[in-house]
């Protein structure tokens, strides 16, 4: 069925809808060689995958359509390097959960998953060769540059742990160990990508191309935030949750910028319309008039500015479309005991609130913060390292990461 694409067509598809491409000549050279472009997208398995994940996944669909060889890296080790966002003993379970959810999400937008491979960070990052290369790399990067590289990705805190400096180095080295031509990510990864481009040649590896998606504002406008549950829709949220969150979502009439709902339509629902209609399309029903049928965002934005398209009619249309898109993911979850078990273990309920303790004086040493359990039960602050890492659980987690079944 698929007619062969020309090099130009492949290139156009690979680079479509991106905000920026670094070193496109690397992509050109591979396409000219006539082999598939090898590309990966990494995600740190920290919190829970949410609806924002549709955005990179739709781009992966385009890479695959262009004949690329696509890998998804479940960056389990990165998930705890970033300020213990995922406690070390839960990281492996979270990575498994991400794999299941992302698989279903890709299926929901018709991405042929047999042509894509998943890989865990801990599969290659714990080998002696990787360790040696990482140490070599650490001699070629200054503390200042490593810190700056991670500034938009790694959580910025006072007395930051050293792991935040290792994080960007490992992301750069992953390009070598995943044996790719290019890395894809949001434009928030730009500084890490620039570091990778700069530092890989300095340790004897080749420079890769970098492809960046624009950032999509959360439903509250601005960046999606994990501390504000209403800014994100969990992929397992019920239709009622979706309705509630969308009712509260930021959707100012006539304003196109920072409009969470309109942006979600642009980056997810319009492209996903291809599934239903064979081409990008989004339909907004109206009570007393013909439905508004959109095939590109320009037309929608014009109607938004002139108030033909209003929050009152857009929100219900987005709600229905999103619920429909999420339905197969939730059906897969409901149908699989394994899926449900992993979810339960990966996100245990938070422990009962601790009794009030006397607040110790800040001694100005490592991590001068109070211990506070996050909703998922992990701890940040003064004793975070002890609680999250130094326990038996932590050691077991290290073992499980090391001993991951390589099959
Ligand atoms: N930095 C990515 C995760 C990542 C980790 C390692 C990589 O090699 C690639 C990507 C994120 O923000 O989620």
TrEMBL record:
Gene Ontology molecular function: any one: tyrosine-tRNA ligase activity
Record's protein name: Tyrosine--tRNA ligase
Coiled-coil annotated residue ranges, if any: none
Family according to the record: Belongs to the class-I aminoacyl-tRNA synthetase family.
Keywords: Aminoacyl-tRNA synthetase, ATP-binding, Cytoplasm, Ligase, Nucleotide-binding, Nucleus, Protein biosynthesis
Record's subcellular location: Cytoplasm; Nucleus
Biased composition (Basic and acidic residues): 369-385, 393-407
The keyword Nucleotide-binding is annotated on this UniProt entry: yes
């Amino acid at each position: 069925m698929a007619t062969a694409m020309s090099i130009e067509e492949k290139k156009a598809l690979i680079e479509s809808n991106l905000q920026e491409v670094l070193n496109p000549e690397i992509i050109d050279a591979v396409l000219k060689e006539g082999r598939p472009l090898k590309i990966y997208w990494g995600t740190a398995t920290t919190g829970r995958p949410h609806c924002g994940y549709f955005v990179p996944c739709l781009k992966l669909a385009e890479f695959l359509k262009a004949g690329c060889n696509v890998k998804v890296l479940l960056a389990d080790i990165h998930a705890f390097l970033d300020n213990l966002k995922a406690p070390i003993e839960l990281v492996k379970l979270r990575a498994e959960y991400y794999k299941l959810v992302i698989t279903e999400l890709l299926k929901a937008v018709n991405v042929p998953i047999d042509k894509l491979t998943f890989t865990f960070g801990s599969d290659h990052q714990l080998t002696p060769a990787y360790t040696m290369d990482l140490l070599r790399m650490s001699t070629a990067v200054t503390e200042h540059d490593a810190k700056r590289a991670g500034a938009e990705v790694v959580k910025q805190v006072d007395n930051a742990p050293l792991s935040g400096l290792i994080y960007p180095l490992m992301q750069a080295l992953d390009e070598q160990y995943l044996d790719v031509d290019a890395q894809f990510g949001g434009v928030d990864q730009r500084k890490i990508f620039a570091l990778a481009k700069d530092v890989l040649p300095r340790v004897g590896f080749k420079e890769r191309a970098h492809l960046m998606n624009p950032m999509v504002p959360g439903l509250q406008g601005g960046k999606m935030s994990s501390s504000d549950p209403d800014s994100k829709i969990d992929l397992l949220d019920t239709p009622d949750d979706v309705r509630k969150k969308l009712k509260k979502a930021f959707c100012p009439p006539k304003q196109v910028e920072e409009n969470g709902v309109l942006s979600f339509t642009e980056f997810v629902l319009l492209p996903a319309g291809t599934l239903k209609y064979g081409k990008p399309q989004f339909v907004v029903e109206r009570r007393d008039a013909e439905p508004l049928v959109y095939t590109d965002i320009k037309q929608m934005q014009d109607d938004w500015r002139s108030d033909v398209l209003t929050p009152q009619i857009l929100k219900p249309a987005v709600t229905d479309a999103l619920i429909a898109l999420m339905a197969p993911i939730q059906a897969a979850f409901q149908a699989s005991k394994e899926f449900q078990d992993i979810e339960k273990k990966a996100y245990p309920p938070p422990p009962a609130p601790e009794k009030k303790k006397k607040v110790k004086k800040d001694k100005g040493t490592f991590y001068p913060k109070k211990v506070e359990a996050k909703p998922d039960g992990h701890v940040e602050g003064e004793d975070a390292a002890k609680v999250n890492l130094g326990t038996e659980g932590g050691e077991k987690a290290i073992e499980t990461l090391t001993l991951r079944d390589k099959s």
